[in-house]
Amino acid sequence: MRICTFLKDGAARLGGVDGDTIVDLAQASGDAPEFANAHTLIQGGAAALTKAANVMSDAQDAARHALTSVQLAAPVMPSTVLCSGSNYHAHNAEKANTPISGKEPEFFLKTADCVVGPDQAVVCDIALTEKLDAETELAIVIGKPGRHIPVTDALSHVFGYTVSNDITARDRQVRRSPEGFTWYELGRGKAFDTSLPLGPVIVTADEIPDPQALTLRTRINGELRQQSSTGDMIWTCAELIHHFSISFTLKPGMVILTGTPAGTCWSADTDLGGNFTPAPGLIAATRYCLPGDVIDSEIAEIGVLRNPVI
Known about the structure:
CATH superfamily of the largest domain: Fumarylacetoacetase-like, C-terminal domain
Low-confidence stretches: none
Structural class: alpha+beta
CATH class of the largest domain: Alpha Beta
């Protein structure tokens, strides 16, 4: 099932995507409490999803909207966003690394204040950064709570998956000493206004049996910058869920970002250790993102998340 949040008369509504239409689940169900928003649906578990499927199949025309006629919002507003950096072999090879890169998951946080939805703007704030970068990533939406979750059971805690763009201020993140030592400042470099586009939909876990077999792409102004498989992750989705659950009780509605492949703007920035040689068909960046750019973050099995830079 594909779940979205859309705007109707300025209010956020929970929708189920049915081909080229969206079913307003609350309207179609007579305002059932499970469909108040994405969080109530996620908390309702399998029973709520079964009910949503039945509601969608029986929905009348009044509760249906053409997908092209509505404005999508972020499909979920996460309570907490747990992020893993340097989690693709090829991305690690294109950049300057810290002593722990590739040896353990890098752990940083974003908040709901960072989140924007499809077609919403990413703000290039020159007071914050002169090196604004984009990173397409698979995002895991947690559906079942747990702590110290075994790797073997981890995927049972997943509600679904969506597309994310881990917008990064590289000149805030990457620090290098005159001697060549590299370290990351993952606070100001990662968490700021509009630094987390999410969307366009959540695809429920039953439709993605193997999250390590998905295709990611990033296009900036139509140029193909990133293309990879989630199979290139150093730590799998299950391993990341296990890792983060050691620190936190994972709760329904939490989101985990899983890292990005090679082809970031950073990869062309020799001042920050970039050393990317693009594969055939990919175009290496010549600069960081600027106002007027359009970023398309795609996971083929989920959809395309598009955001302009202003």
